[in-house]
Amino acid sequence: MTRDHRRSLRPTLVAGAALLAVGAGVAGCDSEPPPKSARIAKGYADAQFSDTITYRSFGTTSAVDCADGKSLNVAGSNNSLTVRGRCEAVNVAGADNRITVERVEKSLTVTGLNNSVTYRGGEPTVDDRGSGNVIADKR
Predict the structure, then answer these.
(1) Chain CA centroid to CA 115, Å
(2) Residue 12 lies in a domain
(3) CB of 103 within 8 A of CB of 123?
(4) Number of domains making up the chain
(5) Where are stretches of biased composition, namely Basic and acidic residues (predicted)?
(6) Residues 64-111: pLDDT tens digits?
(7) Is 79 a domain residue?
């Protein structure tokens, strides 16, 4: 390669490196996600549009909405939950939760420890497979 040829490549290489640097900087940019309501806990908000709500938070007080027939899985611990709507099924695998459910249609299964679950409507089959749980029918 001649000296003149190297000089003619230098501006091209510099411009290419600059474009690469700008492209790498912009690639990480993204708009902020919309803020979530303070009343909706993190573990609940991401599952609003599926048939099953999975609640994984720890140490929260929150309202959850089963709407008209969603199922609810609670895997977190030390939560106080008020569950509105008609739940198809409720499964509690966490520990030390205090849960009040408006209505459970088919099944209420508790496999966790020291949970207190109260339901106010429905005729679910109740299965306590855990230890130290209290399940109350307040129909």
Answers:
(1) 20
(2) no
(3) no
(4) 1
(5) 126-139
(6) 999 889 999 999 999 999 999 999 999 999 999 999 999 999 999 999
(7) yes
